[in-house]
Each structure stands twice: as C-alpha cells, then as structure tokens.
Design a protein that fits this description.
The chain has helices spanning about 15-25, 30-40, 45-70, 95-125, 140-150, 155-170, 175-200, 205-215, 225-235, 245-250, 260-280, 280-285, 295-310, 310-345, 350-370, 385-415, 415-420, 430-455; strands at about 380, 385. By secondary structure, the chain is mostly helical. Strands 1-2 form a two-stranded antiparallel sheet. The longest helix is centred in the C-terminal third of the chain and has 35 residues, at about 310-345. The protein is globular, with a radius of gyration of 21 Å. It holds the Pfam family SNF.
Length: about 450
C-alpha cells in the first residue's frame, strides 16, 4: 500500500466498502456477545432497545468517524491534523487517535484468543473429540469447555497462532488485494451460513416459544440502566472508538455519499445481529435449554442443543465456521488500523508493520490472555483476569473516550468543515440537525455510558 495521500487507493465500489465495513462490524459483537446479552436481559426488550440505540447513537457516530477518516484520507492518528482547517488547532488532538490504537490493541489481545477457541471447537467436532452424535449433558459440555480451553493453554495458543497466521496472509496482500478481495468471498459465505442456520432453527419443534421470547418485549424489563447498557453494546457492535471506521473511510472516494453508507452499515449490522439471535433462541427453547447462560452460551449451551438435532454435528460445524468467518472479517480490519498507522507514521514497510503488529499483539496480548485461566490466574487487574481486563479497559474506557473525543473534535473543532465533508449541501436541514446532535447530545450520551460502566 502506498502511504502518500495523493496516491492513496480507493475502494473499487460502494458495495465492496459496505461489505468490508459490515465485515468489520459483524464479528463476535453480533454473533457471540449480542445473543448472550439478549438472553441475560429479557429477550425482546433488549432487541427493541438495540434497534433504537442504533438510531440514537450508532448511525450518528458512524458518520462522525467517516467524516474524520475521509477528510484527510490518512491514518487514524494523522486524521486529527489541521491541514485543511482555516484556524490551526492543537496537535494534542492526535491523542484521540493514539487512544484508539491502544483500544485496538486491547480488543485484539483477547479477540484473537476467542478465534482460537472457535477453531478448537471446529476441529474437535470434525475429529470427534467433541462427540455430539448422541445427546450430551450440561456437565459434559462444561467439562469439555474447561478441559479443552481453560486447561489447555498450549492447544489454544496453537489455534490462536493459526488464526493469526490466516490474518497475516490476507493482510500481506494489502487493503484492496487482501482485505477487499477476501471480504467479497467471506461475507456472502457468512450470509449463506447464517440464513441456513436460521431456517434450520426456526423449523424445529417448539421453536415458536423461543421466537416469542426473542421478539416480544417485556416492557417491565426496560429500564434506563438497560438502555445505557444497550447503547454501550452498539459501540462494541459497530467497532466504534478504535479507528476502524476512520481507517476504512480514509480509502473512500470524495464522491461517495457518507449518509447512505452509514445508514446501510447500521442497518446491515442490526439485521445480522438480530438474525444471529434467530439461529440461537428458537433452538434453546426447542430443547429446554436456559437462555441466560451468559458469555458461555455459545461454547457450553449450544453444543447441548446441537446434540439434540438431526445432523447436529454438521450444523454445529457450520455454526462455529460462521463465527470464525465473522471474527476474521473483523480482525483483519482492526489489525489494519495499527498497520496503517505504523506505515504512515514511521514510514515502515508494510510487511514489517504487519509482522510487528501481529507478532507484538500475539506475544504481549494473546499469550497472557490464554494463560489468564491457568498459569497467570493469580494476576488480576481491576479485580479481573488478564483476559477480562483487556475487554474491560478497551470496551469501557478507551473506546468510549476515543468516541467522545471524536464527537467533540467534529462539533467544536472541525465545525463547518465537518458539514462540508458530510454533504455537498452543508446548510441542509439534515446536516444541521446531525451536526448539532453530534456537538451537544452525543457527548452527553457517551459520558452517561462511561460513568455508568465505571460505577
């Protein structure tokens, strides 16, 4: 990839950009985190609030990061420079970009390990070491999880390394030749697997009860606290606050309609997250499995469900393959945030930047996260294991502070320049409403989420 702004590549089409952004935002946030949070928080009530939150904070913040990213068409640190502003602003605004990079490191520190877990389940299902040819018990599923993940650090380290290596192969081919080209194949495959799983699950006996639980909101469960939690989930689901959308939009053509792409991105993420629930909750209720298992829902509860199904092993392999594809389309874009910054800030060759990024995160993040359940289980931060601490610091502190900085930067620093970047009609009613909403309302929403997460 070339680092000079004037020679910067652009996406081959709007569709490929939207598919890439969809891949970046549809990872474990939609396929793993969203379903278990729905199960823990009242089913349909959570789903309804998630759809509302996507409009309240999701789409406006997508536009914020798109404006920042396309404005100078550089990495997520230099995007906060003042080259185009009439009045110079402080160089310290770049701290926002550096916070985003720290957040990207934090999420990748444990995210890639989750990819290793998924690979472990796929291989175990194929080899038969996870035998679901007959109905398995809750104890069997729990024992397998503990023995193959918590107590097998070398095995998980190997699978995580393989997952990292797959990312390396794609990233080595560049933004267009690697990321864009791979997403063209991976996203349609993800959709095929997703639709196939949904059809299978909603046709199970007794699935209607799960669909009702998932879609019918219990309004008594809707509270301000729950809505604040859902708003925070939207940041995770859309990869907001760690430079992904800033980096990806820096390859957008100046002729591209940012509003349309933002709306499509938010809609696509919401649809896939909701569909992910359809491939889980009908089957849980069909076979009498509790939906409130928390983070272990996918890894402990669903194998029990698949063991009850006809051709359950095949569907289990498809399901976990879907998770792996979703994780891959997200991880390559998060890695790219750091890689692009190293290339353009340090004039580093792409191959070296990739090796340093992936290798550094593997040694300093992935390995400690893998060992946090065993050899390093006595080391805690903020009262949490190393694995959970990476999640907590990146998701509850760094992402939100970065997003807050982005909103303030657009509203109080870029001002009219932001309006002009968003639309060729900067004085239109929509542009004015969005700008004032981002300037005055969005920072307050983010502060409420931030304080709530720390209490």
């Amino acid at each position: 990839m070339k680092t000079k702004k004037s020679e910067r590549q652009t996406w081959s089409s709007r569709l490929t950009y939207i598919m890439t952004v969809a891949g970046a935002t549809v990872g474990f946030g939609a396929t793993w985190r969203f379903p278990y949070l729905v199960g823990e928080n009242g089913g349909g009530a959570y789903v309804l609030l998630f759809c509302i939150a996507m409009i309240v904070i999701g789409i406006p913040m997508i536009l914020v990061e798109n404006v920042i990213g396309r404005r100078l068409r550089v990495n997520s640190i230099d995007a906060f420079e003042d080259k185009l502003t009439a009045k110079p602003h402080s160089k310290y605004w770049k701290i926002i970009g550096y916070m985003g990079l720290l957040g990207a490191f934090g999420i990748m520190a444990y995210y890639m390990v989750l990819g290793g877990w998924v690979m472990n389940y796929i291989i175990s299902l194929i080899s038969g070491s996870l035998d679901i040819s007959s109905t398995i018990s809750k104890d069997y599923a729990k024992t397998f999880y503990e023995q193959s993940i918590s107590n097998s650090p070398l095995q998980i380290a190997l699978y995580t390394f393989i997952f990292v290596a797959i990312n390396y192969v794609i990233l080595a081919k560049g933004i267009i030749g690697g990321i864009e080209r791979s997403v063209k194949y991976l996203m349609p495959l993800l959709f095929v697997f997703l639709i196939g799983m949904v059809i299978r699950n909603i046709t199970l006996p007794g699935a209607a009860e799960g669909i009702i639980y998932y879609l019918k909101p219990d309004f008594s469960k809707i509270t301000p606290q729950l809505f604040i939690m859902v708003l925070g989930q939207v940041f995770f689901a859309l990869s907001l606050g760690f430079g992904v959308l800033i980096t990806l939009s820096s390859y957008l053509s100046k002729e591209e309609n940012l509003v349309q792409t933002a709306v499509i991105t938010g809609f696509t993420n919401t649809v896939i997250a909701v569909l992910a629930g359809f491939m889980i909750f009908p089957s849980l209720f069909s076979f009498g499995i509790e939906p409130n298992a928390g983070p272990t829902l996918v890894f402990q509860s669903l194998p029990i469900v698949f063991s009850h199904m006809w051709a359950g092993r095949i569907f289990a392999i498809i399901f976990f393959s879907l998770l792996l594809i979703a994780a891959l389309t997200t991880s390559i874009t998060i890695y790219e945030v750091i890689i692009t910054a190293l290339q353009e800030k340090l004039r580093m060759r792409r191959g070296k930047a990739i090796a340093l990024t992936l290798g550094g995160i593997f040694l300093l993040g992935n390995i400690p996260s893998i060992l946090s359940d065993n050899l390093l289980k006595d080391y805690t931060f903020f009262g949490k294991s190393i694995f959970d601490a990476f999640d907590y610091v990146s998701g509850n502190i760094l992402f939100l502070l970065t997003a807050l900085g982005c909103a303030i930067f657009v509203g109080f620093v870029l001002k009219d320049e932001a309006k002009k970047e968003l639309s060729n009609k900067p004085n239109s009613t929509f542009t004015k409403i969005w700008f004032n909403y981002v300037k005055y309302v969005v920072p307050l929403i983010i502060l409420v989420i931030f304080v709530s997460n720390l209490i």
